[in-house]
Known about the structure:
Helices cover 8% and strands 35% of the residues. It has five domains: 19-81, Complement Module, domain 1 (Ribbon), CATH 2.10.70.10; 93-139, Complement Module, domain 1 (Ribbon); 141-202, Complement Module, domain 1 (Ribbon); 204-261, Complement Module, domain 1 (Ribbon); 272-341, Complement Module, domain 1, CATH 2.10.70.10. Strand 31 and strand 32 (354-356) form a beta hairpin. The chain has two helices and 32 strands. Residues 1-18 and 334-357 have low confidence and may be disordered. The radius of gyration is 53 Å and the shape is elongated. It is mainly beta. This is Beta-2-glycoprotein 1. GO terms for molecular function: heparin binding.
Amino acid sequence: MERLFLLCSCLLVTTVTSQHSVCSRPNLQGNIEMAGIQRFFNPGVELALSCKQGYTPVLGPRKIVCTINGEWTNTKLKCIPKQCPHPELITNGELYYEDTVFQSTINYTCHEGYIMTGPSSAVCQANGTWSTPAPECIPVSCGLAPVPLYGMVIYDKAIRGTTTNYGVTATYICNPPYALFGNPFAECTASGSWTETPECRVVTCPPPENIDRGYMSANDKREFFYRETVKYDCESPYVLEGNLETVCQKSGRWSEKPSCKAPCAVAIRKAKILYKGKKIWIKDLEPNRVLHLEIISVFCMNKAMGCGYEVSTQCIDGVLKIPECFEGIFSFCYKKAFQKLNRTKTKVKEGGFMVID
């Protein structure tokens, strides 16, 4: 009987103890954490909560309690990611990012012709700072532009030392009498080299030929160098048409020469003409000629008014066309019109309109 009693006592104690449940280690969400590695907790135990590295606590409370039914009390604690400052733009480059919170990434690139110095990316760290400072984009460097033999280089900006940067341009010039063959402009490229260098070559032209009814400023029977010039003029009364001079070109040929144009005779008898703003009789035109491109006016008959009107014609290299309507006119329309106007009388009749006689 004694042994049975003791066994029952033990069973009774066990039954009473099972009414109080322990709490398992809480399953924390939203970047919340707790210290230690303990797996089970007795009722009444309080646990302090904190945010994982890189996150900041907001709201609260920051602790939970194990209740007698084996469950933890609720908490409104939230952990939000820390914020890094907004990155600044980089000169001669671009940056790409989606956010500036903890673990966000910035990627940097440089424009064509520029080289990056420093890391090409940065990460927002747990302390709210970027892992690396922004890189720099420095221009690609070239040496000095190659100078062609018998030529020179003129840069678009002042150059110091023996290096030039991407985008610098230069102009090539050849020393006389050399002519430049190739692109006269060069540029420091993104590859760190200059564009193709042109050549300076000697160019000569044969002795120039004279023009009909003209003369030239040089009669040397020699070869002329590139860009040398020869001037032309015409014997009187011929008129020079075209450029006054011809130039020795890069092709080894002379530029287009001018020509001498002939004057024109005025094939009219016993009539007046309008020449250089004056009306003169044709017999008073001495000598009977007008120069190339000069204009005269003759008079054609207005049969309705019985008088003449002006029609212009121009001398073109010895040819002066007389208008088909031309007749020898001795009175002019504007005079007759003026005289008729003076003779005009106006009368007012009943009915309120005017009659001109």
